[in-house]
Structures are given as structure tokens and as C-alpha cells.
Amino acid sequence: MTQQPPHLFRPLKLRGVTLPNRIVVSPMCQYSAVNGCAQDWHLMHLGSLAVGGNGMLIVEMTNVVAEGRITPHCLGLYDDACEAALKRVIDFCRLHTASALAVQLAHAGRKASTRPPWEGREPLRPGAGGWPTVGPSAIPASADDLVPRALSTAEIEGLVRDFAAAAQRAQRIGFDAIELHAAHGYLLHQFLSPLSNRRDDAYGGSLENRMRFPLAVFDAVRAVWPDDRPLGVRLSATDWIDGGWDMAQSLAFARALEARGCDWLDVSSGGLSPLQQVPDSPGYQVPFGAEIKANTSLTIVTVGMITEALQAESILAEGKADLVALARGMLYDPRWAWHAAADLGAEVRYPNQYLRCRPRQRADGSPITAPANPERQP
């Protein structure tokens, strides 16, 4: 009887796309684009992660309009130049990876127009390199941030079309999957949370109304995205603030997405306000995804201070999630999947050019007798 591989290294099929394992590289902003266009930094950064043997690599938050960027240096997918620049990077990655390649589409809303983190994230005002920000309501993220202009109904409808147009560009680039960013205090999350959405029209007030815009975006993207390619959503399960977005509302949103055929829910938390009180500890966000998984049929991606292979394997083996995503851990160790495979006694793909570095024995001392990918050199 053939022994099953560890849970972390079992394939997972999402529509017509098969992930070779359950390791996901989370989207990580690099603040290194020029006019929304990917540069050589992205070629190096994503190329390095693409050859790391992961199940899926999600490209950083990529904005559907220029005004939706967090900083002037963030990626976009809103014109032909952005599309061509990102296609160059993805075409390169595709040559050297078996990982599914996804892109996270987003709009920063009231968190737009700031300096990059290594410059303090201060707001950039119009006339000083920044631009006016927008949101569901004219409520800034903090006392130091720009006051956003409340979007009109016509502008909301236009942004739904912008998300769909970016999805069509993603299809032309050749992405396998899309993740919509409804977390971390960005525009879709701003509409969901009663702390940032104080509208009195069809897009505010009740939970049904606050979900209307994010669900309209999902529907519009699903309508133009090929049926055989998966579409997921990243969600902040709680604002970590009394009276804000919480698990009960997250479950309602998750069930609405489930009914629409959402392929995965990437469950994070926080990011809406500096007033949040987050109790950081290893795996601290895993229970949020586990609760949604227990109450829906959604495929769950879990995140949050997951750093060790045995930790990730236990999360999956205990049925708390279906996929495990790493962000900073991948920056620190882009070969995390290789090392996890050695620790757990699993096989993982190496690029032909790196096969010579593949360990001859696993962490338990058992020999590795054959390469994981014995294809011929090109």
C-alpha cells in the first residue's frame, strides 16, 4: 500500500487548476513599481519565489485604478503598460515553475496615497506627490490620515467595472487564479465594516447593504473570469475593535460567497484601524479560518505567524484549514517549501538548474533515492 504524503504536500484541485501542494506564498507589497508597472525587482522577487516548490504564488496587491494604490510605487493592472510589464514577469515565472500563479486585485480606498513603509507611511497630500483618497464614507483611517471623499453610487458602479477590466487583463497575462482583497482595511473591507462605512444608501447601514459592493465586485469578476480558473477572496475576520467587523458578520459574508461559487477564502484579520488590539502569537489567526471551515464548504487558506513545517502540517492534519500561506517567512526563507519537504519526508519540485543542491537524505536520515522532477534539461 502506497503511503500518503504529508498533508502539506498533497495536491489540491481548484476548478481546472491543480496545486502541487498546500503551501501558498501570500501577496506581499514590494513598493517597487513605476507608474504601476512591474520592474526588474519584481522579476527577481517573484522569480525566486516561483522556483521554491510552492503550491501557489499570489502576486502582491495589484490595484485596479491608479488612485487605488497604497503608494505611488505600488503595482497596478489598469492600463496596457501595466499589463505588458506584469506579463513579462509572469511569462518568466511560468517557464520555471509548477506553482499555480495568482494575482490579488485590490483598491486601497482611504489607505491610498502614502509613502512606503520604510519612509514611515505618512500620507502624501495632493500637490506633494499624492492624490485625493476615496472611501465608503468621509472617515479617515486615523487622525493623521487624509480624509477620503465618499464615493457616489455611480463611482461605486464604475469601480465594479474596473475590477472586471483588471480581471480580463489578468486573463490575458495568463494567471491561473485571482484573489480579491477584502481585508486589511482596504476599500472592500472599508465597505464591510460599520466603523468605516456610515452610508445611508443601498451600500451602507445593514450587513446586507455593507456587503453589496464587495459581492458585486465578486460577481463582476466571476462573470468575466474563465469558468475553469478559480477565484478567491481575502477577508479580515475581525477588526479587533468592539463594534466593528466580527466573526458573525464574516460567517454571513462567507456564506454569501459560498453561494456564489467562491473557490477559497484566505482568512486574515485586522488592518482597518490603528486602534485594533491584536494578540499576536504563533497561529493566532488559525481559529478564524477553522470556524468558517466548520460552517461552510469553502476551501480555507490560513495565515498568521506560521513558521515551522510541523506547525503547518498539524493545522492541515487537524482539519483547521486546507492551505497554509506564508508571507514574511517566505521573504526570510524563499526555499521554505524545500526545507519543509525535507523535514516531513516529502517530495517537492526543484528547478533543473538547482537539482544538485537537493538533499540526499531527509531530516530523519532516510535516503532520497530519486529526484522529485527527473525531467530532461531544456
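the 2nd protein, sequnce then structure:
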Amino acid sequence: MNQLVDAFSRSGCRHPDFAAVTAILRETAAIEVMPRFRCLAAGDVREKGPGDLVTVADVASERRLTAALMALVPGSVVVGEEGVDADPGVLDLLAGSAPVWVVDPVDGTGNFAAGRECFAMIVAYVEGGETVAGWIHDPVHDVTVYGAVGEGAWRDGVRLSVAPAKRLSETTGSAPSRVRKRVADRGAAEGIDVPGHLLQYRCAGREYMDMAQGSLDFARYGRRLKPWDHAAGVLLHREAGGFSAVDEAGRPYSPRAGIVEGSLLVAADAAMWEALAGLLIPSA
């Protein structure tokens, strides 16, 4: 019981202590992730599906995070990317009554396996099917962005905010390659205002970190939105002042349904979202 009290004591009993979860992420990164970075053997990487990689670091990291997070909040459960891969029924825990930790042990596994530094570790704390708090950790630079509903998004004690409003031609955003081509073609053919620079990190966690810190203006994701990629990031981005919604109807993203079918557009504000929606949301 004392451990449970300690986990919530410095956070007003609404969510686990920011520092406690950050410490778990840092320790897991130091023990399970970074020692394997650029040190993977051929047998340490496999495909779960075409182009969908998993490494020994993913598995070991999720195992350690699962044990530590469940111990931090007794009675909680974990929905992790690798756990769902082994048993899709684990997703049903999101609709249950127990508090849920949603975990991506190594987000951007393709980058990690290729020795590229753009990867992250993501944890969301979900109650009643909605994200209450989130953490995204960059193990390479030992930086964590964290936040909770109504409490803002933070890094090293500094409150974060999204990028200020600007013309589309001045923005930088992330989108899949097929969407980038479609936008470029429309801009050239119709002479309309389109984003000035489109790219893709291949790591949603790092994109969400940069959007919350104002160095990336927007991102488009879809069409299967997995909770370990988006539950924490959408919350942190919103707490930094941003706006996001799924599909042209503009419905809010929620991890409650597990894997959500649709296109998620994350932008600095509602006006930018509206300006981008017609360019980025149509299925590619």
C-alpha cells in the first residue's frame, strides 16, 4: 500500500508520479535498450510481418517495463506492443475497469535495428479508456517529455508549447511518402498553398516529442492507429496546446477502442488542422 501511495503522492492522486515513471524508463533504457543499440546480432532481429520488425531489445524492454509499472501501481495491467502481438486479446484490457499502462518498448524499431538514433520509448497511463498521463523517452539523449490531463506537457521542468501559427508554406510536417507525393502533385497542378516541407521520422514518439516542443508543426498518421503509438503522444500534444482529430469528421482520438481505423491528423491548432485536412486526410 505504501508503494501505491508513493506512486501517486506527488501527483495529486490522479496519476502516478512523473518522476517515478521517468526513472523506470531511464533504468530500462540503460539496461535493456542502449547496450543493444548498434550491437544487434543477426538472430536478434525478426519480422512480425512484412516490414514490421521486432528485436530482442523490444522484448526485453517490454518485459522489464511491465514488471516495474505493475509494481508501481498494484492492480494495474499492461497493454504492450509485443504482448498484443503474442495475444491480440490483450487489447480488451483497455475496455476493462483496471488502470492500464500502454507501452511501446522501442518505438521506431526499424530505425533502432538500422543503427539510426531516431527511436523512443512510450508509456501512457489509461483509466476508463482515456489517457490520463503520458511519457515519451528518448534513450539516446536521455530526455523525457511527460504530462497529464489539465497539467500541461513538460520537459526538465519546463512547460512545453506547440509551434506558433504560420502559413502552410512555412510549415514542416510528417506524412507517409504516398501522401507527400499527392500533396506535391496538387501544389504543382493547382498552385495552392501546401506545406513547405514534408518528411517522416518513422518514429511517432519522436515526432510527438518535437510537435510538443514546437519544432515540428504537424503529423498525419493512419490508417490503423495503435494505442502504443498514439495514446501518450496525443495527450502530450494537446497539453502543449495542439489539436488533433481522426478523419474529416474530426472525431477525437481515444485509445479505448484499441486499434482505431482512420487517419489521425495532429496539428498546432484547429485552424491549421482545417487547412491541412483536405490535403492530408483523404485515403492514399
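Residues 2-159 form a domain with the Fructose-1,6-Bisphosphatase; Chain A, domain 1 fold (CATH 3.30.540.10). The chain has two domains: 2-159, 168-280.
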